[in-house]
What does this fold into?
Amino acid sequence: MPGKVADFLRTAELEPAERAALDQGVTVRRGQGYTLGVTAVPAVHHRLLARCQPLDGREGAPALPAQRKARREYENRVNTLAPTGP
It folds into this structure.
């Protein structure tokens, strides 16, 4: 998960499973930013992705291009995971 997404989610109200996944993530420095390696079932990743929709700027609040790109990258990674079910 890109660091900008992780930073945003750390300030959001999350369910216990989502918070635990973030807290147990491993930070990997890369260039100017970082990536948070989060090990969780696909359902948790899908819920985290849904919670970071404001980073896309669709809810009337402008978003920074870097935030939109980070959310989009996370969405691409989550979409490669196994489906969550029906």
Q: What stands out?
A: Residues 3-79 form one domain. The longest helix spans residues 65-79. Residues 7 and 36 are 10 Å apart (CA to CA).
